[in-house]
Amino acid sequence: MATVILASARGEAVRLALIENGALAEYTLWRPASPDGVGDLYTGRVSTRASALGGAFADLGDTTGFLPDSAGGKTLSEGDIAAFRVTRAAQGGKGPRLALAKDAPGARPGLIARGPGPLGDWRALHPTAPIYADDYALIAALRPRFALVEYKSGCFADIEDEIASLEDLEIALPGGARATITPTPALTAIDIDAGAATAERGGKAASQARLNRAVIPELARQIRLRNLGGAILIDFAGMKASSRAALGPDLAAALARDPLKPRLLGFTVLGFAEVLRPRVRTPLHEILR
Fold this sequence. Notes:
flat; six-stranded antiparallel β-sheet
C-alpha cells in the first residue's frame, strides 16, 4: 500500500492528511500547543467510585477523567493513587476516558508524559511512509521526533477541494446517491438518499440493492475520514427492512479496512445498520467547528 503523510502549518494548527493509494484516508487538525490528550500518561487519585456508571472518577491535577471498571477501575478504591493512560479525548461535554497504566505513578496528581498525537499514531501504523511538509519551520519542528520528513511545495494542492467539503455533513456517493450525517449526543445517524440514482435495469428491489452495495465502500471511507465514533446508525436507501441484512457482508468487509476496526453489530427491526466504531479522538466535524 502506497502511503504518504502530508503536513501543513495553518496558524497555531497543523493540517495533517493521510494518503493511501492516492486517496485521502484521514484528515485532522493537530494543535501541538493544546493537544487532545489521547495517550497522555498521568498520576491520578481516585476521587469518586461511580458504581452506577461502572467505574470511578480520577483527579488528574488539571482535569478529571473516568476510569471504567473494565479498564482497571475494579481494583481501585477512593483515595488510591495510580498511573493512568488517556484512551479517549474529552469530547461531547465529558472528560477524558482512562485506563489503568502499569507505569509507576508520581507523588501527586499531574501529567507525567504526553501522548504521541495523531501524527505519532500514523507514524506507528506506517513507519516507512514519507512525511511531506510545505514549511521549513514545520520540518525543523518535526524532524527531532519523526524520520523521513521532506519539503514539498503545495503538497495539499490536489486535495484542497476535498478537504473543504469535509465541513459539509452531506456527502456525494456513487451513482448519484447522497448521505446526510446527523450527529447527536447519543449516536451518529447516517441517512442514504438514492437521489438522482434510477433503476437502469431489473426490478426496483434489485436496483436498490445494487445502489446500496455500490455506495458502501465510499460510505466506510467517509466514516473513517470524518472520524465518526461511538454508535452509528445507517439508514440505507429504499429496500425493505427485512432485506437489508443482505448488505451485512459487504458493509462488514468495507469496515474491516479501518485501523480502528469498527464492528457491524447487526440490523435493527426498522432496518438500520448498527455500527460501533471506537471513539478515541474528537470527530472531525467538532474539530472543524
